[in-house]
Amino acid sequence: MIVYNKQLLENEILIDEADSLYKGGFISKEQKKFIEKELPALKGQSNILVRIGLFLLGCLLYGSICGAISLFGLSAENVFFQICCYIFTIVGFVGAELLANQEYHNHGLDDAFILNAILCLGAAVAITTEGHEIVIAFFVAVGALFMFLRYLHVLSMLVFCISATAFLFFGMFKFGDIGKAILPFAAMIFAGLFYFLTKKRMTHLSKSYYYNGLLLANSFCLVLFYLSCNYLIVRELSAELLGTEVQPGTDIPFAFFFYAFTFIVPIVYLVQALKTKDRIMLWLSFLAIAFSIYTIRFYHSVLPIEIALTLGGVVLFAIAYFSIRKLKEKESGLTFKPDRINHSDSLLNAEALVVASTFGMKPEVKTASPMEFGGGGFSGGGSDGSF
Q1: What is the DSSP string of 161-199?
Q2: Membrane-spanning regions, if any (predicted)?
Q3: Which end of the chain, C or N, has fewer beta carbons within 10 A?
């Protein structure tokens, strides 16, 4: 299914690991260059700005090809309009295949052809079905999944997750008000099942080619699971889809469950992230906690905004201060020590300056030894019999 040479993919993984070791200070720059020279890899682009530029250039090239084809189909008028997006989709698939055969991967040009092919596929199905949402979502999901499996395109996995979620939503809409009413629970169950499925696949991967895509899908499930039953999301969607208005003194059905879900899930994320040392889940838990606080303030303003922000800043500072004091001397597990694999010198210098100024840490002073060595003809101190 994968179009790329497996050996080149494995070499790319080894080069990435060598780059991580170099950033961590475990190997020298010469050793890193030697590894890159000895291991041929795919033509990729690690600089995100250059990759965006190449993506825009690829979109221009793709548009030029489609525009040239359109010049030949103008005479057909309505007939060409019905099939043009299918032709443009074929152009995208063919372009992606040619670039893959030229060993381009995560380069920018291949991103343009892959994403535009998926976009044209959705537009083609929309024209054919006259905007039937559930059919559009299904075919976009299938096309995005194919692009991920064949070209290992991580962004295609994100498109698959979004379109699969849209397929679920539009499918629930087909059941009328009942489907709309149980939509939060259906989305929650879908996200939970999809999360454990991707987690299981990640732990049983024999080859790590698909790992990044599965990790993205796994993180997407965490976000969807929390948002599916967040009180603010459920209440606003209920008003939008069902037309229900919450009168003063009343609330939405199962309001207690949604309130509890809004605050318990972020705490569960935080505890699980600390337990498993999952950095992505840790950041998502912080964002979820912040959105939970915003959810309550959206409906219940207990304090003026300036006082709430001040108190929130004091609480966060206290948590950060005592956490750093607790973790700064730990050498393993959850620690405040810098990560040797992911760091920059400027960040480390900033951390050292902040810690030193905050906690009054003084630089280490070297004291002179009371014994003076030397005098020997070899490497030993005092080898001539005197100190």
Answers
A1: HHHHHHHHHHHHHTTHHHHHHSHHHHHHHHHHHHHHHHH
A2: 48-73, 79-100, 112-128, 134-152, 157-175, 181-197, 209-234, 254-271, 280-299, 305-324
A3: N
Confidence of residue 43 (pLDDT cuts 50, 70, 90): confident
The pLDDT tens digits of the residues spanning 168-200 come to: 999 998 888 888 888 999 999 999 999 999 999
CA angle at 211 for the pair 340 and 264, rounded to the nearest 5°: 80
| Separation of alpha carbons 65 and 92, rounded Å | 10
* Residue 60: half-sphere exposure toward Cβ, Cα within 13 Å: 6
What is the distance between the alpha carbons of residues 312 and 306, in angstroms, rounded to a whole number? 10
3-state secondary structure 98-166: HHHHCCECCCCHHHHHHHHHHHHHHHHHHHHHCCCHHHHHHHHHHHHHHHHHHHCCHHHHHHHHHHHHH
Place of tokens 């074929």: 90
CA distance 337 to 356: 14
Q: Are 242 and 177 in contact (CB under 8 A)?
A: yes
Cα–Cα distance list, 293 to 16, 72, 298, 302, 311 (Å): 39, 57, 9, 12, 13
Cα distances from 23 to residues 15, 153, 214, 271, 333, in angstroms, run 12, 26, 25, 30, 21
Total length of the chain: 387
* Tokens 């103008």 belong to residue: 74
The identity of residue 249, as a single letter, is: G
Q: What is the pLDDT of residues 45-90, one digit of tens each?
A: 878 899 999 999 999 999 999 888 888 877 766 777 788 889 999 9
Query: Looking up tokens 């019999």, which residue turns up?
Result: 385
Which residues, listed in sequence order, are joined to residue 43 by a DSSP beta bridge?
104
Q: Which of 93, 86, 125 is nearest to 112 (CA)?
A: 93
CA 134 to chain centre: 26
Question: Which residue has tokens 């003026």?
Answer: 304
Tens digit of each residue's pLDDT (9 = 90 or more) over 230-278: 988 888 888 887 777 766 667 778 888 888 999 999 999 988 888 888 8
The CA-CA-CA angle for residues 218, 275, 352, to 5°, reads 100
